[in-house]
What does this fold into?
Amino acid sequence: MKEGQKLWSRDELILAINLYCKLPFGRLHQRNPEIINLAKLIGRTSGSVAFKLVNFASLDPSLKARGIKGASNASKLDKEIWNEFFNHLDALPYESEKLLAKLEHTTIEKLNHIPENELPKEGKTREKMVKVRVNQSFFRSSILASYNNTCCITGIQQTELLIAGHIKPWGIDGKNRLNPQNGIAINGLHDKAFELGLITILPDYKIKVSSILTKQKNNQTIQDFFLKYENKPIILPSRFLPDKEFLKYHNNERFKH
It folds into this structure.
């Protein structure tokens, strides 16, 4: 460590991972306003925060799988906090948002744009509802950032039309509800078709259309919105590649062949 530098704390690293998940891979640089803001909040330079995010990239298994190495200066504590974060996705994203809200001198509800009129006044029910909403928001931000706000099937880049869809449904696999490798950025129409098993994504990341739709090949609308994507590769995320085991589950258990 250079003279004058201070060690990163656990809380600072959790905040850095939180931001890493929310930023597209190509925006991990010191001029990014969100990196500048976090740097101010934790009393560090934007360069040091950006460098830490690139260090985290070196620990990201999805990037390793694509041959992207990131920096190679991740510390032992970096690795420990990275593993802790992604092994406790039910708790640490929420913890990181509480830390961020405290530093921003606001509430976690306001930070995550949760209207007060949609929540109980107080109590455990309120806390539980807030946690669910915060975790859902974190999942959406992580997925859209990974896909650079782009639908993996159509290439649509209108954020308002995009959904952070689950491969293995929310209600079936509680452990992986917030796992970014259990998510895809997808537009509303194709998300519904995916949910109903009318389309799927194969483990080689190619799109498969159900015979229910392929039988309607003379229907121009079905042709335009579904059949033309048959056997086409999805637009891959820059990180957090969809887990092939989740895709196999969808193929075997949800897809209507």
Q: What stands out?
A: The first strand starts at residue 162 and ends at 166. The chain is about 45% helix and 5% strand.
